[in-house]
Design goal:
The complex is a heterodimer of chains A (about 110) and B (about 450).
Chain A: H1 2-30, H2 37-62, H3 67-96
Helix pairs in contact in A: 1-3, 2-3
Chain B: H1 2-17, H2 24-40, H3 48-66, H4 70-88, H5 94-113, E1 116-117, E2 122-123, H6 131-155, H7 157-165, H8 173-189, H9 198-204, H10 217-251, H11 257-285, H12 297-328, H13 332-356, H14 361-380, H15 384-394, H16 401-406, H17 412-421, H18 426-445
Helix pairs in contact in B: 1-2, 1-8, 2-3, 3-4, 4-5, 4-14, 5-8, 6-7, 10-12, 11-12, 11-13, 12-13, 13-14, 15-17, 17-18
The chains are: A mainly alpha (about 110), B mainly alpha (about 450).
């Protein structure tokens, strides 16, 4: 029984991760200038997180704020924040990993 | 220092709200929030504006203690978002304050830690925390220590006895997690953040309407003619309607509930449509350059007349609603109608001012959302259940006792009082006694966090 619960939990969290990941990726795919991830973050993250929280609270209310549901949506929130953080960190790495040409001191 | 304050606030948060219903705790939470915000934003609290919104927030917190109703809790929440939004940027519209307040509450900490540095175009986490390492240094030693405790327990009976004596039953993981939620909430709000570009766009856009480059006198002349004919016809129509309306009010002797109810509800439905369409038509006619056309005096005066006639229509509906209340008692729906009428008059006056002082649509949005906010706060300060019961027992010509019994517990003590003074039928008396008994039981079982004003009347 415990193994079954563990497997169900694992599948639920994995599926949640996939859905949240897809929802965030969708924003970057739909935005034409998605190469500038800071701009996308600045423009869309506030609305994304507000809508996600509103949907979570609405569903929690429907489920009478049960502990299991509260933990689940807590995890959803943390996963979403970590994915956004990952997107920004990877971009930071990209823009700092460029080769810098040596200073051409012989040029005027 | 900051972390210590947040830690204390988190412990208090869990103490106040963990498995508790709303009462004194929300009032204390409001004070706690103001203290946390004040510690970190002292300069922002120097403005009269911030002090005013703080007073509104604390006022709703105190109102929750006096009469715990859904409306008051909602008003407290809206006042909370407004105050935080106002501290993040005090020059924006109230709806942008709500957006900033909401965003700060949900993800302020995350935004601050991954805020974009515009000058260097890089994300600058304040401290690059290695979460994996932290997890390793907590989890791995803990697991190894637990394994060794198990081994030593088998090796020495005295050590085993010592370990068995350790009692962790006082430790409540749910309580700790709830405190974690409190810590997250206070970390978010302690330094409010703004949503861009919504905030800067709102600041940049003023209230005044500007003349466009497409200004054309022949085109405007046609628009002016259309405006005059349309608004003049609407004025004639509303005058005829008002004459019939006033005749109805003065001559109506039929005070059957069903007749008045149909009249008020139909009136309200017509009024909603009429006012919304009136504002849309006026906004369309005065959307642009007609405001700057030199011969627009007639169309403007007709528009002002139409707005004033619409206000008369609102007053006539208010009189009918007043009659309805007088004969058949106060109810939430009838109070709702009065609130709608107040908002309708505000909408009409702001439209009049928009045309008179040549303002844009954003001005209307700003004024009317602010009006909705203040109406919400003011209505939340009133104990409606008590007022409805008091009015119906003392002034109304007739009333619906089961409706009063079904209201929240805020009127229970008054109902009991009225039961002692008036003679009610057995069924109603028994229901009131039952309600009173359950409320007394609830008050007696309230923990200090759940205390209400009625607790002090026991």
């Amino acid at each position: 029984m415990e193994t079954f619960v563990f497997i169900v939990l694992l599948i639920t969290v994995s599926l949640t991760f996939v859905f949240v990941r897809l929802s965030i990726s969708l924003i970057f795919w739909l935005v034409t200038d998605s190469k500038d991830k800071y701009a996308v973050f600045k423009k869309f993250f506030p609305y994304y997180i507000i809508i996600l929280t509103a949907l979570s609270i609405y569903t929690l209310k429907l489920l009478d704020f049960s502990y299991a549901a509260t933990y689940y949506f807590g995890i959803v929130h943390v996963i979403a924040l970590f994915i956004w953080r990952g997107e920004l960190k990877s971009y930071k790495k990209k823009i700092t990993d460029f080769a810098v040409e040596p200073n051409q001191t012989h040029l005027p | 220092m900051k972390n210590v304050i947040l830690f204390i606030a988190a412990v208090l948060f869990s103490t106040l709200f963990y498995e508790k219903s709303i009462g004194l705790n929300l009032c204390i939470f409001s004070v706690l929030t103001v203290i946390i915000l004040f510690i970190n934003n002292k300069n922002d609290f120097k403005t009269k504006d911030a002090i005013f919104y703080t007073a509104l927030y604390l006022g709703t917190g105190i109102a929750v203690f006096f009469h715990d109703s859904s409306l008051t809790i909602m008003a407290n929440l809206v006042a909370f978002f407004t105050l935080i939004g106002r501290l993040s940027q005090n020059k924006t519209s109230i709806y942008v304050n709500w957006l900033n307040g909401l965003y700060t509450t949900i993800a302020g900490w995350f935004h601050r830690n991954f805020a974009i540095n515009e000058t260097t175009q890089s994300v600058e986490p304040k401290t690059d925390i290695d979460y994996l390492h932290i997890a390793k240094i907590i989890i791995i030693p803990s697991i190894i220590v637990i394994i060794f405790i198990g081994l030593y327990q088998n090796g020495n009976p005295l050590f085993s006895e010592l370990i068995n004596k350790i009692d962790f039953s006082f430790f409540n993981i749910q309580w700790v997690l709830f405190a974690g939620l409190g810590y997250y909430l206070f970390s978010n709000i302690y330094q409010p953040v703004i949503v861009e570009p919504a905030t800067s766009e709102d600041i940049a856009l003023g209230n005044s309407l500007l003349k466009t480059s497409k200004f054309s006198i022949p085109k405007l002349k046609k628009e002016n003619q259309l405006g005059i004919i349309l608004i003049a016809m609407l004025n004639v129509l509303i005058v005829i309607f008002l004459i019939t309306e006033i005749t109805f009010i003065l001559t109506n002797l039929d005070i059957r509930a069903s007749v008045l109810s149909t009249q008020v509800h139909n009136g309200i439905n017509a009024l909603i449509a009429s006012i919304v369409i009136a504002i849309i038509i006026l906004l369309y006619i005065f959307r642009g350059d007609l405001n700057f056309y030199k011969d627009n005096a007639i169309v403007k005066h007709l528009a002002f007349t139409w707005i004033l006639l619409n206000i008369l229509l609102v007053i006539s509906i208010a009189i009918k609603n007043g009659q309805y209340i007088y004969y058949f008692g106060l109810t939430y729906k009838r109070i709702g109608v009065l609130i709608y009428l107040i908002l309708a008059i505000t909408g009409l006056i702001t439209t009049l001012n928009k045309i008179n002082t040549i303002k844009n649509i954003r001005y209307l949005m700003r004024c009317n959302t602010k009006a909705v906010f203040f109406v919400l706060i003011l209505t939340s300060l009133v104990n409606w259940d008590y007022q409805i019961t008091h009015y119906n027992f003392n002034y109304a010509k007739s009333m619906d006792v089961p409706y009063l019994i079904e209201l929240s517990d805020n009127n229970t003590l008054l109902l009991k009082d009225q039961l002692d003074k008036n003679e009610l039928n057995e069924e109603h008396a028994s229901r009131i006694e039952n309600k009173y008994y359950h409320y007394m039981l609830e008050l007696e079982n309230n923990s200090w966090q759940e205390w209400q004003y009625d607790n002090f009347k026991l």
